Amino acid sequence: MTARVDRQGALASVLDRANLTRAEVGTRYPLFADPSDGRWTTTGRGSWTGGFWAGLLWLRARSTGAAEDQAAASSCTARLAPWAGADTATRGLILWYGTALSGDDGEAAALRRRAARACLESWDPDLGVVPWGSALGGPRLLARVDGVPGMVQLLAAAGGHGVAAAGSHLHRHLDLGLGVGAGGELLRPAWGFDEVTGWRPCADPPSGWSRGRAWLLLAVADALNRPEAADWRPERLRTAVERLLAEGDVLAGPIVPPAEETRPEGPPDTSAAAITAVALLKLSRLGGPEAPVFARRAGAVLDHLISAHVSEGGGGRPAGMLLDGCYDAGRGTAVGHELVWGDFFLALGLAAVGGLVDVSDV
Fold first, then answer.
1. Fewest 10 Å CB contacts: which of 39, 119, 262, 338?
2. H helices within the chain, ranges in order?
3. Residue 29's beta-bridge partner residues?
4. Sequence-ordered list of residues with C-beta below 8 angstroms from that of 223, at least 6 positions apart, any chain
């Protein structure tokens, strides 16, 4: 059996798992599932992960072509509409990934446009970012790396000065998190702003948060694949890619990193690996001498996840679960579970290498 057949079978298994999940959760949104039996912890509104559930349903609809699957994906996306005006930078995660695979679904496209305009209205030119916001609780004036993926695309799509706002949002996070051009320590994934002291690093999430690095690598790869990339200082973005790849030993280190790289004995996070695989696939689309290296590493990550971390079913556990994800290591929340965004990025990566989607468009 070839690696391609294995990948196709794994994609089918993950998308069949999504169909079972849909039957289980109804109109709620899955967050993480117990590794022993696959039972989901859910939320009514979707939280910051709702777009990944919608995106997974869109992938299933694209794979099967079934009207029932199309309707389910469309309905799920429509229920995300209240997030368009919510005060949170995670609207990028929710409303970009929840709509980017929707094809010619007019309602999803309209929701994406509305979210784009609302995000642009939230951009703070003095801070240079769309603030993290208050919708999920905690301080509002934060800059967190998980507020960058998807947000750059939404801002750029808003028209007017949206392209400039998108570049500002991305580069301010690079300034803070990496200090690109000045060297420094591990990625600082979260910063708070105070009018007296200015930007200060936050302790949570901690430096060495592997998903933080994956999110930022994804955001930079997205930006370099956009038609507006020439307006966003592409050479600096490439420098950021080099720094992120080197700092995490992404191309030669462990395929599945620990959730917190300062605690190598701690739980792993397969979702960070899946996000990284998609980012590498996006980088490979840029061409250049490193493109084959990025593509091979992405393929190796996907193959490892398939062979070592996707459930085969049996013993009361469904097939197609991407196991060993870590929701929050510091709080001990779902530290060895199936995570809905892990499933999504694994499926997206497999769909991309199998030709079902153009990863540059998502």
1. 262
2. 3-25, 50-64, 67-78, 91, 106-122, 151-156, 162-177, 210-225, 234-247, 270-284, 291-309, 340-353
3. 43
4. 152, 166, 170, 229, 232, 237
The set of residues, in sequence order, having a beta carbon less than 8 Å from that of 53 and lying 6+ positions away, is: 29, 30, 46, 76, 340, 344
Q: Which amino acid is at 358?
A: D
Residue 3 has pLDDT above 50, yes or no: no
The C-alpha atoms of residue 205 and residue 201 are separated, in whole angstroms, by 10
E strand or H helix at 313:
strand 310-314
CA distance linking residue 176 with residue 156, whole number of Å = 21
d(CA 167, CA 232): 5
pTM for the complete prediction? 0.97
d(CA 96, CA 82): 14
Whether omega before 318 lies within 30 degrees of 0, making that bond cis, reads no
Give the pair of three-digit tokens for residue 297: 């590493």
For residue 120, is pLDDT > 50? Answer: yes
Per-residue pLDDT tens over the stretch 198-225:
999 999 999 999 999 999 999 999 999 9
CB atoms within 10 A of CB 142: 19
